[in-house]
Each structure stands twice: as structure tokens, then as C-alpha cells.
Amino acid sequence: MKFKTCGRDTSCELVIEHPTVSRLHARIELAEDGLLVLKDADSSNGMYLNRNDSWIRASRVTLCAGDRIRFGDCEVALERLTAVFGNRSNARLGAMHFPVRKRHSGAALNTDRKTPVDPLHKPRRNPATGKIEDETT
User: Fold this and answer.
1) 20-48 burial, b for 16+ CB within 10 Å, e for fewer?
2) What residue segments make up the domains of the chain, in order of their start?
3) How many Cα atoms within 13 Å fall on the side-chain side of residue 20?
4) Rounded Cα gap, residues 28 and 38, in angstroms
5) Domain 2-83 CATH class label
6) How far is 96 from 130, CA to CA, in rounded Å?
7) Are 46 and 40 in contact (CB under 8 A)?
8) Phi, psi torsion values for 64, nearest 5 degrees
């Protein structure tokens, strides 16, 4: 596995000049299959991943298309991370993660089929008979 470093220090392959970035903040690893893996190098302000519209602190992450990465308070474009290995490398991002659809509570079962049915909707069963109840019952 090939790796590069990123941080504030000038010896890093990806220098990020920001006060919340540690001297050695993270390692960028290039796996044999070309996927990029980020590993936090015990930085004081952490590494954060935004996937599906929420930021979470991460110590190790395989990067996917659509991800957003932050070192401390500094967001870094994925293009900068892939470019660190050069144009001749096989560096690539994984398949994009799609957000999980949120279901509306109390949604009725759609039997007229004019509007699409939510595939995650579970029909209501009558506890006494065990039969599926229609929206009219």
C-alpha cells in the first residue's frame, strides 16, 4: 500500500495551512484496487466525514464519490486528495453512497396505484384476524 501524508508541516505531501490542522494530521493510503483510504494520525482536532448530510468524526474511512472531508475546521476537496498520487496513479473514489429515504409516519397504504407506493411502507395487519387492512378500514 502506498501512502502520503497531509498536515501543516512542509514535509507533508499535501500541505494544509490552517490553524486547526495538525503538523501531521492524516495519512492518505492508496490501496491495490485504487481506492483511497484516509487514516487520522491522532490529530488534536480530528478528521470528519460528511456522508448523507451529516458530519461524523472518523479515524479511518474509504473515500467515495460525493463524500466531504474536513481536517479540523478545514474542508478539503476530494480532487486535492486524489491528485496527491499524481495523474499516472490508479487512484479513484468508491461508488457514491445514497441517503436512506425517510418514511413519513402514518402514511396510508396506496391501493389505487395512481401515485407510487413507498417501498418501505409496511401494511397494517389486523391483530385479531391477521389480515392486511385496506386504507378504507
Assistant:
1) bbbebbbbbbbeeeebbbbebbebebbbb
2) 2-83, 107-137
3) 11
4) 5
5) mainly beta
6) 40
7) yes
8) -125, 160
Output 72 or 130, whichever has higher pLDDT: 72
Looking only at the bridges linking them, the beta strands covering 74-76 and 47-50 are unpaired
- Joined together, the cell numbers standing for residue 2 give 502506498
Q: Between 11 and 94, where is the model more confident? A: 11
Q: What is the pLDDT of residues 90-134, one digit of tens each?
A: 776 776 655 555 554 554 444 555 555 455 556 667 777 777 766
- The identity of residue 69, as a single letter, is I
* Beta pairing class for 68-71 and 47-50: antiparallel
